[in-house]
Write the C-alpha cells for this entry.
Amino acid sequence: MNREVDLYKLRINIDRLLERLDDLAKIGAIENTDGCSRLALTDEDKEGRDLVVTWMRDLGMDITIDGIGNVVAVWTGPHTDPTLKPVMTGSHIDTVKTGGRYDGNLGVLAGLEVVETLAEAGISTRHPLAVGFFTDEEGSRFPPDMLGSLVYVGGMSLEDGLDTVGIDGAVLGDELERIGYRGGAPCPAVAPHAFVELHIEQGPVLEAEGVTIGAVESVQGISWTEITIKGQSNHAGTTPMHLRRDPGYAAARIATFVRELALELGGRQVATVGQIKLHPNLVNVVAANATITVDLRNTEEAILQQAEQRLVEFCDRLAEDEKVTITTRSLARFEPVVFDPEVVDRVAHTAAELGYSVKRMPSGAGHDAQMLARVCPTAMIFTPSWEGLSHNPFEFTAPEDLEAGTNVLLHVLAALANENGYNK
Ligand code: GLV
Ligand code: MN
Ligand code: MN
C-alpha cells in the first residue's frame, strides 16, 4: 500500500480528543460550568499533569521533565530516525483561576491525538514528534506569563524562574518541588526542528467572519505593570476632601486613564486593569494603599512603548496632584513576535487542502509559541471561540472546529517531520 496516500487520507479521532478534554476538565472543575481552575503548580495542576503524563506513557512516548517543570514527550515510529531533532507541538495545561477547558489544554491533547492517529495507522515520520506542556503559561499566579517556555528557550535563567514569587507569596521552585515536577532535564533545552501550536483564538474574529482556521502570523507585544500607591489612611466621615491623599481614588483614575488611552491610540491597542487591591479595604476608611495591575498590548512595538510612556507620565502627575507616592514594577514585557512565513504558509495551505476556510491573523493572547519562535521555525493554528469568550469558564469551541484544527495540526506536523533539511 502506498504510504503517501494513506497519510493524505488520515484524519484524527474527534471522540477520543473530546474524551481526553473532558477527563482533564474534570480536574479543578468549576461547579455548574464546563470550565476549570488549575492555577500553575497548585494541587489541581499536579493532578492534571499526572493525568497527561499517564496518557503520554500509554502512547509509549519517551518523557522528560526539565528543571522548571516543562514536560516533553517524544514519539518515534518504527521508521523514525531518532537522531534527528523532533518536530514539536504543545501548549500548557495550567489555567487562570476562572478558566475554560480549551485554553492551552487543546494544544497539548491535540498533540497526543496526532501521535495516536499516526501510531494507529502504522505511519512513521522521519523526524520524531514531541508533545510538550510548559509550566505557568498563564502567569496569573507567577508572573510573567509563558514563564516555562521562556526558561525553555533560555530567555530567563532557571534560577530566576525558580525564584519567582507568586501573588500568594509562594516561591515557584518550592511549589514545583512540592508537586514533584522539578525534573533533571537541562534548560535551556535543545531547540526542536520546528514548533507548531494549536490554540483556540480566544477572540471574536474567526466566528464573526465564519472562518474555521486561523493561520497565525504574529503575536502582539505584552506589557504588564504592577502599580503601588501609598497615601494617608483616615476617617471617611471626618476627612475634608481637599485634605485627602487617597490611593483608592488614584487607582480608579489610573483605570479610567488606560481605557481612554487605548481608545485614543486606536488600532490594536488594548488596555486592562485586571486587579485592584485596597488596604484595609473597608467602607468607612480612606485606603492606606492600593495595588493595581495594568496590561497593555499592541502589535506595534513603537505604539506600545508610547502607551507605556504615557502611563508613566500620568502616574507622575497623579502622584503630585493627590500627594500620594506611586511606584511601579514590571511583571512581564515581551515585544511583538512575527512567526516563520514558511510555517505560516504551510498552515494556510494545509487548511485549504483539507477544505477548511482560512484567515491569516495576529494573536491577541500570549502563547508558548512566541517563545519557541526565538529558537526554531514556528507558527500557530487557531480555531474559533464562541462569542470570542476566553479566560472564562464558558469558553467554548464547537467539536467540528476542534476536529478541523487538529486535522490541520496532524498534516502540518507530518509534513514538517518528513521534510529534508527544513530547519534553517
Ligand atoms: C496568556 O494567556 C495571556 O495572553 O495573558
Ligand atoms: Mn493559552
Ligand atoms: Mn490563557
